[in-house]
């Protein structure tokens, strides 16, 4: 399963999310929404207006969600 974290600079919830993924030994990619207009459009198309947005296989969510991250490990 591919995990992608759509993030932005100086985002506390983004940092918490990536640290939680790392703590569980999960591989993920980070996409900076401020530098990738296509990614921003995709995230907004999913209905999200805040970072981070995590896309993990068929699942996706916004914000720091330890409960959802726990389901991935």
UniProtKB/TrEMBL annotation:
PANTHER family named in the record: GLUTAREDOXIN (PTHR34386), GLUTAREDOXIN-LIKE PROTEIN NRDH (PTHR34386:SF1)
Alphabetical list of Pfam families matching this protein: Glutaredoxin
InterPro entries linked to this entry: GlrX_NrdH (IPR011909), Glutaredoxin (IPR002109), Grx-like_ET (IPR051548), Thioredoxin-like_sf (IPR036249)
SUPFAM superfamilies: Thioredoxin-like (SSF52833)
CDD domains: NrdH
Ranges for domain Glutaredoxin: 3-61
UniProt keyword terms in alphabetical order: Disulfide bond, Electron transport, Redox-active center, Transport
Gene3D superfamilies, A to Z: Glutaredoxin (3.40.30.10)
Official protein name in the record: Glutaredoxin-like protein NrdH
Lineage: Bacteria, Pseudomonadati, Pseudomonadota, Alphaproteobacteria, Rhodobacterales
Alphabetized NCBIfam families for the sequence: GlrX_NrdH
């Amino acid at each position: 399963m591919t995990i992608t974290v759509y993030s932005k600079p100086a985002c506390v919830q983004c940092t918490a999310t990536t640290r939680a993924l790392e703590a569980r030994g999960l591989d993920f990619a980070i996409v900076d929404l401020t530098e990738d207009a296509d990614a921003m459009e995709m995230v907004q198309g999913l209905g999200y207006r805040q970072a981070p947005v995590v896309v993990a296989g068929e699942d996706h969510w916004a914000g720091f969600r330890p409960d959802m991250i726990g389901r991935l490990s």
